[in-house]
Design a protein that fits this description.
The chain is of the alpha+beta class. The chain folds into three domains: 2-48; 65-157, Periplasmic binding protein-like II (D-Maltodextrin-Binding Protein, domain 2, 3-Layer(aba) Sandwich), CATH 3.40.190; 169-338 and 379-427, 3-Layer(aba) Sandwich (Aminopeptidase). The chain contains 13 helices and 19 strands. A six-stranded mixed sheet has the order 16-11-6-7-8-17, sandwiched between helices. Strand 13 and strand 14 form a beta hairpin. Helix 7 packs across helix 8 and helix 7 (264-273) packs antiparallel against helix 11 (346-353). The longest helix has 37 residues, at 22-58. The two termini are 26 Å apart.
Length: 432
C-alpha cells in the first residue's frame, strides 16, 4: 500500500511539471493529500491498537493454578465428600496451605511429600485414597503405562498477586524469542503443561533474518535449578515458563530476551484468520479426518495443527515433528511479510489473539517492530535448524527413580553448532 501511495504522488508531481493549469494542480494535490492522510490514519490506528492490546493484556487477572483430585480408576470414591476420613496426599510445596483451605469441608488425613513419584506409588499401593496434584502433572501420567486414574474433582488455587514483568531491552536490533507451545486447549491464563514446542527464534531486525532453533520435547537435559537426575525438556513446562527459558539458556549458553507461550487454540484461530498457510510435505499421511498429501498443501488452522503435531507417521518421530513445526512458523512469517495480510487484517488479528497467548514482550517493543514492518515491507529470510540425539530410556527429575521414561540423549555437537549459529546472527550487522 505504501508503495502505491508513493508512486501515485510521483505521478502527480510529473503531471504538475507537464500541466501548468492551477485548477488541475489543486485537484491533484487534494487527491494526494487525501491518500496520504488515509494511510497515516490507518498507520496510527494500527499502532494505537497494538499499544491498547498489550496494555489490556498487562491488566488481565493473575494466573491461577488448577488442582485435580485423582483416584485410581477402580476406586470407590467419586466425589470430594466420599473422601471423608480418608488419606489424601499432595506435594509439600508453596500450594499446600491453600489446598488445605480448599479441603476444609471434609475431615481427612494429609500425607505430604516433596517427591511426586513417591506419592504416586502410595496411591498405586492403596496407601492413599486420593492425590491432589497440579493439572499440569496430568500430562506426565500419560507417559506411565501401569497406572490408570480418574479425576473426581477440580479446585482452583489463587496464585499470590504478582504483576507480570514486561521486559524492556534498550534498542536491541537482535534478540531471542522463546516460543513455547503447551499441549492443552483452553484459556492460556489458567493453563500450565508440558511444553511440546520449544523453538528459539533468533531475530535480527537489521538484516531481516530469523533463525529458528528447535529442541525436541524429549531432550534429556538438566532442568535449571535442579541437581541429580536430568529430565525431559517438555517437563520443564509443568514448573512454569521461567523454568523452560532458564533451562534452554543453560543448554545453549545464550540469553533469552522474551517468551511467547501459546496453546492449540492460538494456532488454529490465528492461521484461520490469515487465510491459511502453504507447506510442502515429504509424505502423505492421515490423522483422524485430516489428510496431508505429499507435496504442496494449503492448510487451514485445524490441518496446520495436525501437521505440526504428527510424529508417528515419520521414521524419525519427534525430530521430524520439530521440522514440521518450524515449517509452519516459516509459512506464517512468509504470509505476513509478503502480502497485505498484516495491514488488511491487523485489527482482527489482535482481536482474535486476545487471551490466547502469554508474553513478556512490552507494548513499546511491539509497537516499534510493527512500525518498521508497516513502513518497510522487507522480505524476511527464515532459516531453521534442529538439534539431534538418540532414543533412550532413563529416570527423570520429575518422576524420580521409580519410572523409566523415553528420552532423547542430546548430540552435543549439534547443540554446540546451534549455539554458534545463534551467536553469529545476534552479532551480525546490516550489510550495505
Amino acid at each position: 500500500m505504501i508503495a502505491y501511495v508513493i508512486l501515485f504522488c510521483i505521478y502527480l508531481f510529473i503531471r504538475l511539471i507537464i500541466f501548468s493549469n492551477k485548477i488541475i494542480f489543486r485537484l491533484f494535490s487534494y487527491v494526494c493529500i487525501f491518500l496520504m492522510g488515509s494511510f497515516i490514519f490507518e498507520f496510527v490506528t494500527n499502532i494505537n491498537s497494538t499499544y491498547a492490546f498489550f496494555e489490556n493484556m498487562n491488566k488481565t487477572d493473575n494466573e491461577n493454578i488448577v488442582m485435580k483430585i485423582i483416584v485410581l480408576e477402580d476406586s470407590p470414591y467419586n466425589t470430594l465428600k466420599d473422601l471423608e476420613e480418608q488419606k489424601i496426599g499432595f506435594l509439600d510445596d508453596d500450594n499446600k496451605i491453600k489446598i488445605k483451605e480448599l479441603l476444609k469441608e471434609i475431615t481427612y488425613t494429609e500425607v505430604l511429600d516433596t517427591d511426586f513419584s513417591s506419592l504416586l506409588e502410595k496411591l498405586k499401593n492403596n496407601e492413599l485414597s486420593a492425590l491432589v496434584i497440579p493439572e499440569s502433572f496430568l500430562s506426565i501420567l500419560d507417559e506411565i503405562e501401569d497406572i490408570n486414574i480418574r479425576i473426581i474433582s477440580s479446585i482452583e488455587v489463587n496464585k499470590d498477586d504478582t504483576e507480570e514483568v514486561f521486559k524492556e531491552v534498550d534498542n536491541k536490533d537482535s534478540f531471542i524469542l522463546y516460543i513455547s507451545g503447551i499441549d492443552s486447549y483452553g484459556n492460556i491464563n489458567t493453563l500450565k503443561g508440558r511444553s511440546d514446542v520449544n523453538i528459539l527464534a533468533v531475530i535480527n531486525t537489521l538484516t531481516h533474518e530469523v533463525l529458528l532453533v528447535n529442541t525436541p520435547r524429549d531432550y534429556y537435559v538438566q532442568l535449571s535449578g535442579t541437581t541429580g537426575l536430568k529430565d525431559k525438556l517438555t517437563h520443564a513446562g509443568i514448573y512454569g515458563i521461567e523454568k523452560s527459558m532458564a533451562t534452554l539458556e543453560e543448554l545453549y549458553n545464550v540469553d533469552i530476551d522474551y517468551y511467547l507461550r501459546v496453546n492449540f487454540d492460538t494456532l488454529v484461530e490465528f492461521i484461520d484468520l490469515i487465510g491459511g498457510v502453504d507447506i510442502n510435505s515429504d509424505i502423505t499421511f492421515t490423522n483422524g479426518d485430516v489428510t496431508i498429501n505429499k507435496g504442496d498443501n494449503h492448510l487451514n488452522g485445524k490441518e496446520a495443527l495436525v501437521y505440526a503435531r504428527e510424529r508417528k507417521s515419520y521414521t524419525t518421530g519427534d525430530n521430524h515433528r520439530g521440522q514440521n513445526q518450524q515449517q509452519i512458523i516459516t509459512a506464517i512469517i512468509d504470509k505476513l511479510s509478503s502480502s497485505t495480510t498484516l495491514i488488511s487484517k491487523y485489527k482482527s488479528i489482535l482481536d482474535s489473539l486476545d487471551g490466547t497467548f502469554q508474553t513478556n514482550v512490552s507494548s513499546s517493543l511491539l509497537t516499534s517492530l510493527i512500525k518498521r514492518e508497516l513502513t518497510s515491507f522487507h522480505k524476511w529470510e527464515v532459516d531453521s535448524i534442529q538439534v539431534t540425539g538418540k532414543d533412550s530410556k532413563n529416570y527423570t527429575y520429575s518422576m524420580g527413580k521409580k519410572y523409566l521414561l523415553y528420552v532423547m540423549e542430546p548430540d552435543l555437537d549439534s547443540v554446540k553448532d546451534a549455539s554458534e549459529k545463534m551467536q553469529e546472527l545476534l552479532k551480525k550487522d546490516k550489510e550495505f
